[in-house]
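Residues pack. One example:


***
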Amino acid sequence: MEFQMNRTLSEPIAVRVTPRQALRRLRMERVPRGLERAASFIETVAALADPRGVAVEGRVSERDDRGVSVGGVRIESALLAGHLVGDRIVAYAVTLGPAVEEAASAADSPLDQYGLHEVGNLFLAKAQVRWKRRVREAFGLSRLSSLHPGGLPDWPIDGQRAVFGLLGDGARKIGVGLTESLLMVPKKSVSGIFFPSRALLVSCRFCARASCPSRRAPFVDAASPASGPACGVGAHG
């Protein structure tokens, strides 16, 4: 069957982080001069980060209860197959570029390393949210859920091959690639699938990691996550 890919979107992403948001992310509310330190980390990360996103729309050519195919690319996810509405999906990647990670790794003190890493992660999370909104607007998709490879057993890390197969040259154009072990480079990057659904589906709802600072939805233990709203999928925001 013909490989059916449609529109591509690739552009910079405007990201804004406040000192209070960084302070909470760093869990430094009780640290002397914590707000001042948080603001300093923001200033450094903002100067180094180059937030960019790419998104490629595809149309599902085959679908069963275990996953979907977009042309010749197979996505093995029962969650996606069970919740996708219609036949449109959007593969995406978002990155801050390499400079934030390099600066954090080269920082002299453990506190500076921690601060730059965590504020960088906060910038990345904000960029991902902004990119989802931009994709929704650009592609005319009013309701979008998201999944990313490696976030859940339902779609393990080898799903990166499918995402990057769908992105094609788009990933390279924003400076993103995969290692042999399927980790993204630069490290401050994220990828996945956006797709229309009747109810909000995010990986966080099926992940039991209690202390994750990037959690975007509460964990709901579910015996059958692909079975519909009873699995903890909530209403769209």
